[in-house]
Design brief:
single chain, alpha/beta, 6 helices
Length: about 230
């Protein structure tokens, strides 16, 4: 099975060692996905069916995104980064249902992960909640490219970390199905888009939180984890 919503992946060639796993797992768990790849330059290792959009590497993160998003003519996208690697099949039915809410203007964004807070259950879908953490951030999120461009235009030209901090909450939701496993200090595993959140932390593999998942990824795609480092060791 697959999804009609196109996937937009932001990446850089400095992370091309993750590409076999990221691209491989998307094709493994999603049939015939439509994928836009935002990258600093074309490179070997990118599937021929992906639509490549290059950005100016000397620009800051927000300008890079804007340069690419204005070239994407889609109503809704699933926006992710290259280290948000799937470890199981997504819930296609829910993703398409959530995408429809974006199209109808019921939500500005729907983040496909749950972070615990002072939750308010959505009035039109009990699997969606709103709290102080449901605002847009750099996690797998459904939203319109136009809305993301509006968010970018509402801030200064910023790097990725300052951009996240600067974003204000709007009509934003997160999914919470029930029974999600807690992972780390604040977030829970996603039942809708089961992914490693995130595989790389401060340049090294995040094996403290995702030991078994990253081990499986490394074995399946023949990745030497010691090249980047694990558990704080390089």
């Amino acid at each position: 099975m697959g999804i009609n919503t196109p996937i937009v992946i932001y990446t850089h060639t400095n992370y091309k060692d993750l590409w076999p796993a990221m691209f491989g797992r998307i094709n493994k768990y999603i049939d015939n996905p439509a994928v836009y790849l935002l990258v600093n330059k074309e490179s070997l290792g990118i599937p021929s069916e992906f639509k490549i959009i290059t950005y100016t590497e000397s620009n800051l993160y927000t300008s890079r995104l804007k340069e690419c998003l204005i070239k994407i003519n889609e109503e809704v996208i699933l926006f992710i980064h290259e280290d948000m690697i799937l470890y199981d099949k997504p819930d296609f039915e829910l993703i398409e249902r959530y995408s429809q809410y974006i199209k109808e203007g019921k939500a500005d964004s729907i983040k496909l992960i749950y972070v615990k807070g002072n939750d308010t259950v959505c009035s039109f879908d009990s699997t969606l909640i709103s709290n102080s953490f449901s605002k847009f951030s750099i996690q797998p999120t459904l939203m319109s490219p136009k809305k993301l461009l509006q968010i970018i235009d509402s801030t200064k030209d910023l790097n990725i970390w300052d951009f996240e901090v600067s974003i204000r909450k709007a009509n934003d939701y997160m999914c919470k199905i029930g029974g999600e496993k807690k992972r780390g200090t604040f977030h829970y595993d996603s039942s809708v888009f089961p992914y490693v959140a995130t595989a790389i932390s401060k340049g090294i593999w995040n094996t403290n939180e995702y030991s078994s998942e990253i081990k499986d990824i490394a074995e399946e795609y023949n990745i030497d984890l010691t090249v980047r480092g694990i558990n704080g060791k390089k």
